[in-house]
Known about the structure:
Layout: E1 4-9, E2 12-13, E3 17-18, E4 21-26, E5 29-33, H1 42-50, E6 60-62, E7 81-83, E8 87-90, E9 93-96, E10 106-109, E11 112-116, E12 125-131, E13 134-139, H2 157-169, E14 174-177
Parallel strand pairs: 5-6, 6-7, 13-14
Antiparallel strand pairs: 1-4, 2-3, 4-5, 7-8, 8-9, 10-11, 11-12, 12-13
Amino acid sequence: MTAQLDVLTAGYVGDNVASSVVLVRDGSTIAVIDPGMVASRDRILGPLERAGVAPDDVTDVIFSHHHPDHTINAALFGRARYHDYWAIYEDDTWTTRLVADHEDGWPLSDSIRLLSTPGHTAQDISTLVDTDQGLVVCTHAWWNEEGPAEDPLAQSADQLRTSRDRLLGLGPALIVPGHGAAYAPRT
């Protein structure tokens, strides 16, 4: 069985900023990735409702990193566990689990893994999702299809290049970047 992935909101960067927000369903796991800044919460809640998912149905929220444009709407999902590079957070419990300690990615479910991909920040993770169309990578290693080639906000350009190469080496069918529409990577 593979996961079903839906882009709820394709992000953008310009005069305003919005994160790409993604819904992934894999069996009993219902995850939202990067519920950050959007023009209106309806840009998250409307597509979620059309997908037949209520906010309280969401079991897991994943943060690619801790910038507010990727996290600010996390409270929409009051029953979820929250995941970052460091731990799992649920109610008043903090369970340390370093994603970087899992070379092939930390498994969230049979078809969803969290992979350490530092560069934009030292704590960036990417979400790898096995779908019927192939591997989909949700990541902030790229802002959008155009890159940028050099991330002007990257904490480490060298780490970012290494993370990009690592992700492309996995042969993804699709990349969902931090602030843009999903695209097939160029080979």
